[in-house]
User: Which sequence fits this backbone?
């Protein structure tokens, strides 16, 4: 559920299954499958929002953070409030703007498992 600050949390397996079905055609279902299998934590943040430090620091699993995807605003990472914090937090990042293809998200999951933190 939304916390009103631009973040959204899905906690129950039934909700994750519903989101996978909804997103399957977009490719990002790969991320939700990894969440369901409890391999990663996933945090998605609206372009103008900050990622709460508590969420970043308390994750026991590899963590992926996504900022402002598919919102058709082409400002780039310099305009995202979360960028500075995330780039300090994560040893690796990918700026991806070529659409939500499954192979890109599979690579993101693999990188998160390797690095522990990925944005």
Assistant:
């Amino acid at each position: 559920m939304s916390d009103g600050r631009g973040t959204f949390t899905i906690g129950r397996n039934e909700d994750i299954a519903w989101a996978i079905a909804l997103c399957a055609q977009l490719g990002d279902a790969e991320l939700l499958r990894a969440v369901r299998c409890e391999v990663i934590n996933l945090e998605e943040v609206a372009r103008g929002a900050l990622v709460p430090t508590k969420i970043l620091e308390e994750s026991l699993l590899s963590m992926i953070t996504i900022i402002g995807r598919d919102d058709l605003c082409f400002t780039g990472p310099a305009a995202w409030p979360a960028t500075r914090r995330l780039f300090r937090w994560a040893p690796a990042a990918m700026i991806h703007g070529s659409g939500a293809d499954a192979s890109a998200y599979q690579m993101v999951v693999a990188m998160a498992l390797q690095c522990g933190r990925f944005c």
Remarks:
- DSSP finds five helices and three strands in the chain.
- The CA atoms of residues 48 and 80 lie 6 Å apart.
- The first helix runs from residue 13 to 23.
- The mean pLDDT is 77.
